[in-house]
Amino acid sequence: MSESVATEKVRTNRSIREDLTTHLLNEVQKARPASEDPTESELANMADALLRDSLRERATDIHLDPQSGGCRVRFRIDGVMHDAALLTVSQGNRLINQFKTMADIDPVHMFFPEEARRTYDFGDREIDLRVTMAPCLSGTKMAIRMLDPENVEHRIDDLGLGEVNLSQLKDWMENLHGMFVVAGPTGCGKTTTLYALLHELKQRARNILTIEDPVEYQIDGINQMQVNDRHRFTFAEGLKVMLRLDPDYMMVGEIRDPASANIAVDASIKGRVLMTTIHAVDAVGAITSMRNWGVRDHEMGTAVTVVVTQRLLRKLCPHCKYADKPTDLDQQWLEALRLPVPSEVWHAHGCEECSQLGYRGRTGAFEVWRLQEDDYALILAHADDHTIRQHLRIKGHTTLAMHALQKVEQGITSLDELKTFSGFAAPVVRR
Ligand SMILES: [Zn+2]
């Protein structure tokens, strides 16, 4: 098939990318018609083919969505959902039942949400599968999250921090003390950053303890505990246990309530090194979150040493990207955010190397706030978010938006990718 014909085929199928599920569709075609019961091996082959397709495409999640007249198969790749196939109702049900069997979920159980885990061998890698099913009006929906240990062996040098941010982080690691907070919304890579720090710290032969929900990846040489709400083993309880276990470094997967916030801050004040994440729009927003949980300004001023905020940006495919002049709309968007307009911005056509997506892999955009005396003074004076952000801008602090724009200028990502982030612009808009 010539390249132009291949491109045409993809264009006509733009809404459903069947080229992402070639193994699955092949197995579906080979299976018996819906009027006959499928054999066990046919079912196993279909499930296996779907997992192989998704892993080949570097998907992190598979969704099987029942809808009127069919079952939609979708992949999340680099954070973005793609329609990958449309199966018939009976094909979709067969596949969902097979995954239930694989995950030891009772096949007749369909009225309550269920969760299960199992591992899947993919070549020489062992993939951790988290299967979640939920009864929806149109039928049973299934989502499969795939955790690949290969995706987490990141060194902090590989996160995309850039020279200035990286040196700030390394500076903290050289003089370990206080609380290291990664702030951001769900799915922005906060946990990956903490895991990268843990990998670095475990080289130092110290006692490292974590409490997580869930433990996404097991790291040799680190004592990881899992939150268990059913047994009231919360982040706060985990923190108390960690403190009794003589920790050198502690990691709390997330601070999300007053109890864990106050214990964490108290431990940091008493000299413990603690790393954690907080849901907040940006670095300064983490301070407000802690205030809302009842942490007092003078406690924060003593405990918090670094706040990082980040977003994950899809990287343009190096094989098909091209530069162009920014459009009038691009200019207006950037000017509204008081960001400089680059002379050129980058796009991608889509090619075989990137499965026609135009992007391949992700990198982080970061803001690293290493708190200084003047910052602490503002916190102690109970300055609000806006005042602290203005103060940081005036003293030349590199914001998240600025770091992301550097990646646009370098052609690592596109301006379109930046625009997709909700809340991204909030820290830099003048009020
Ligand atoms: Zn490409």
Note the topology:
Elements: H1 3-12, H2 22-30, H3 40-56, E1 59-67, E2 70-77, E3 80-87, H4 89-102, E4 114-122, E5 125-136, E6 139-147, H5 163-174, E7 179-183, H6 190-201, E8 208-212, E9 223-226, H7 235-244, E10 249-252, H8 258-269, E11 273-278, H9 283-292, H10 297-303, E12 304-316, E13 321-324, H11 328-336, E14 345-348, E15 359-370, H12 373-380, H13 385-394, H14 400-409, H15 415-419
Parallel strand pairs: 7-11, 7-12, 8-9, 8-10, 10-11
Antiparallel strand pairs: 1-2, 1-6, 2-3, 4-5, 5-6, 12-15, 13-14
Helix pairs in contact: 2-3, 3-4, 7-8, 8-10, 10-12
Characterise this structure.
The structure is a single chain. This protein has 2 domains: 3-148, Beta-Lactamase; 152-428, 3-Layer(aba) Sandwich (Rossmann fold). Mean pLDDT is 89; it is low at 1-13 and 426-431. The strands form 3 sheets. A 7-stranded mixed beta sheet has the order 9-8-10-11-7-12-15, with helices on both faces. A 6-stranded antiparallel beta sheet has the order 3-2-1-6-5-4, covered by helices on one side. Helices cover 36% and strands 26% of the residues. It has 431 residues and is of the alpha/beta class. It has helices spanning 3-12, 22-30, 40-56, 89-102, 163-174, 190-201, 235-244, 258-269, 283-292, 297-303, 328-336, 373-380, 385-394, 400-409, 415-419; strands spanning 59-67, 70-77, 80-87, 114-122, 125-136, 139-147, 179-183, 208-212, 223-226, 249-252, 273-278, 304-316, 321-324, 345-348, 359-370. α2 (22-30) packs antiparallel against α3, α3 packs across α4 and α8 (258-269) crosses α10 (297-303). The chain is globular.
